[in-house]
Amino acid sequence: MEKLVSSWNNVQTVPEKYIFPPEKRPGNVTFNASKSIPVIDLEAIAISQDRDATIQKILKAGQDYGFFQVINHGVAEDLMNDTMSVFKEFFELPEEDKTSFYCEDGMRNNHCMLYTSSLLYATEDVHLWRDNLRNSCHPLEECIQHWPEKPTRYRHVVGAYATEVKKLAATILELLCEGLGLESGHFGGKLSEIPSLLVNHYPPCPDPSLTLGVSEHCDPNLITILQQDSDVFGLQVLKNGEWVGVEPISNAFVVNMGYQMQIISNNKLRSVEHRAVTNSEKARTSVAMFFFPSGDSIVEPAKALVDPLNPAIYKSFQYKEFIAHFLKKSGGTDVALEPFKLQAN
Fold it and tell me: Given CA atoms 275, 279, 282, 283 in this order, what sign does their dihedral have?
């Protein structure tokens, strides 16, 4: 438990093990809200004409950024605020209330794990400035029984939150189906069957220029729905070689495409590298819900998107093949996707 960054007191300097190589450091972190990712109002999808325009905005954001924010999405603001409060309260609990969930190798309680940096802590070259709480959500009714009982409303609030965010994900996936010209439900079933909820907690850092909360990466899953702290910048998206800050907007969710969405859409939508920087004055907490395919699900470019003029870029494979490769390799998109590409004729 002493390895948890949130357990440290009065840290004046960044420990050596947390200092990134010069080429990986974020440097002086600034945020320009004018360059942030698109914000899309989902209230308009109830009206046919506005629905079409909204879908086109989603597709354009998915192609240009791989990211967008949604507002008026149907998840109650009170539930969002209460969920964020519950997670912050959890990290502030006494050590004895969190010990049973703490692990360093992912082998302790796979329904709920508290760890620091990553599950590769023992072997990684440099540590991330974050603590993590991972909640399995499939099947939700079973997983909830293994979640924390403190704070006392944890299971009730987080369970309701997971249910509502899953509904939101289903709505967004259906809009993507419409926009891409796929049959209804194409992204449902096994392709988004396994939800997992990850809470990232980033305590104040004495020198944010030296370290990262999350290093640059793309998500291996289908789609991710993220709630940010309402007043602390941290998430950055790579756009044309520049790190663009994602403005925290109250009662909004950040949506990003995972590798599986890029593959199934045959590159019509993109999974884009992103990272999280730290803050010297404020702690930051984010709540991400990832939607993964089941291990035996078949992932391949949708047949409706493939023709002689638009040949398939990727081969057909089981998701468990992809995730096994992803977890073994380090590197960017080229490294992750190369083994699954069809060779050019």
Answer: positive
8 A C-beta contact, residue 338 and residue 322: no
User: Whole-angstrom Cα distance, residue 261 to residue 186?
Assistant: 11
Strands 67-71 and 39-41: parallel
Rounded to a whole number of angstroms, the CA Rg of the chain reads: 20
Q: Which pLDDT value is given to residue 345?
A: 38
- With a CB cutoff of 8 Å and minimum separation 6, the contacts of 68 are 37, 38, 39, 40, 57, 58, 61, 62, 254, 255
Q: How many helices (H) and strands (E) does the chain have?
A: 7, 14
Straight-line distance from the first to the last Cα atom of the chain, in angstroms, rounded to the nearest whole number: 54
Contact of 193 with 64, CB cutoff 8 Å: no
DSSP state of 17: G
Cis, peptide link before residue 339, omega less than 30° from 0: no
Question: Residue ranges of the alpha helices (H) in 181-313?
Answer: 259-264
As a whole number of angstroms, the distance between CA 74 and CA 106 comes to: 34
Distance of alpha carbon 227 from alpha carbon 204, whole angstroms: 19
Nearest CA among 235, 254, 285, 291 for reference residue 71: 254
Q: What is the phi-psi region of residue 140: left when phi exceeds 0, alpha when psi lies from -120 to 50, beta otherwise?
A: alpha
Of 84, 195, 86, the residue nearest 149 (C-alpha): 86
Q: What is the pLDDT of residues 255-311, one digit of tens each?
A: 999 999 999 999 999 999 999 999 999 999 999 999 999 999 999 999 999 999 999
User: Would you say residue 35 has pLDDT above 90?
Assistant: no
Which residue from 238, 194, 240 is spatially nearest to 220, judged by alpha carbons? 194
Phi, psi of 157 (to 5 degrees): -70, -50
Q: Which domains does the chain have, with CATH numbers?
A: 5-340 (2.60.120.330)
Q: Which two tokens stand for residue 92?
A: 């502030």
Q: What does the pLDDT look like over 207-242, one tens digit per residue?
A: 999 999 999 999 999 999 999 998 899 999 999 999
* DSSP class of 119: T
> What six digits make up the tokens of 229?
């702290």
CB atoms under 10 Å from CB of 160, counted, come to 16
The neighbouring-strand residues paired with 116 are: 131
